[in-house]
Design goal:
Distance between the termini: 21 Å
Strand content: 5-15%
Structural class: alpha+beta
Number of helices: 12
Strand order of the largest sheet: 1-2-4-3
Number of strands: 4
Helix content: 55-70%
Amino acid sequence: MFDLQQFEGESQQNGIRYWIAHDFMSRLGYESWQSFKTVIQRAMGNCLALGIDTDEVFIPCEHQGVRSYKLTRFACFLTAMQADGKKPEVAQAQIALAAIAEALIEEKLNETGLVRIKERGKLTQAEKFLSGVAHEAGIQSHHFGIFKDSGIRGMYNMSLQELNAYKGVDGKKPLYDFMGITEMAANTFRVTQTAERMRNQGVTGLNASATTAKEVGQEVRDVMLKSSGTAPEDLPLEGDIASVKKQIKAANRHMKKLDGAKKPKP
């Protein structure tokens, strides 16, 4: 079981307060460094998505002759959130470390926040990829909005403007920033598959590209309806992803202040 007092007692101090990753691994019920390293890498991905330098949070070091990390409290928090919640130690650590974060920022942390941030990053990269493919297909930059809207029409049976109105969003910020994990992931799949099909089939020109984008969007819609019975336009929206990022980054700043002091005597 995860013991918060024991966790605090295992911290070390050298300018900052930190925990050795191999020790934290045991606290979370992991036996294999290889599998735990994957958890740490996912947590590092969260850092990158937040715009935080990973080397300031996951500090490379050697531990008993092997490569490890000095984990700040924020790194421990991110790692616990990315770990296997089916493990009782992990579930308890998630509750305990989230409670510390919430006490520091006086806000409730949404449990899907970190995943949404990561998915939003994937969608951004997917759209950049599609933009490059569209350019290769001869689509002019001033026509990209028409091309993009075709994919939206295929997936949602309405234009982006109509979709914003249907979902009650004013359109000043990207609709993607308010989507939940399922809807965001579905759009990432739609965007990447549109790009792949265009390349594989040698699609060129605005009309053919727009038709391809709409067809792929329709296929994604059909899969979603078959899987859940819920149309993508009826999936609920969540809070602005920018506010989620701000909230979690605030937790990092406050944890730095908390652990900048000397380690208290037991």
